[in-house]
Amino acid sequence: MEHEKPSIKPIAYTFGLYSGLLSIAGLVILYVLNIESHWILSVVSTIATILIYFYGINTYKKLNANVLSIKDGLKTGMGIALVGGIIGAIYAAIHYSIIMPEFLEGKKQEAIDTMMTQNPNMEGEALETALSLIDITTSEAFIATMMILGSIIFGFIVSLIISAVIKNDN
Q: Residue 18's CB: how many other CB atoms inside 10 A?
């Protein structure tokens, strides 16, 4: 007799929330310490994120009579990635537009300075195009979109590995 599979949604929402809160905590810590990035924070954050995926996928497995296919593990992990990515992206957009707008302005100016150093004779339409690309890539919307994309790609890889390791098709 086939048992009914549990819903992935509550697991994705719960563990996605944890993942999103971890992203928020990372940005807040960097802001409070007044640094752009730190390798220790990156390593700890990556390990914590992997553990969130592991516990989320393992929770699904336990609720599913200890049965887990790679497909179901991937679906669960991708749900966590999407929810966590959206939460982190919304906060990042708020963070960089309200709390720390000078960060993106600084990045924009760095990009302009680098471009002008490498191409001192750039002018006209080429200059306008380059400046508009810099505007796009240093916007809150671009940062948020890249956070969601990064979360989904990272989530796919991590979920695939975790699912392959802990799968149980019996």
A: 19
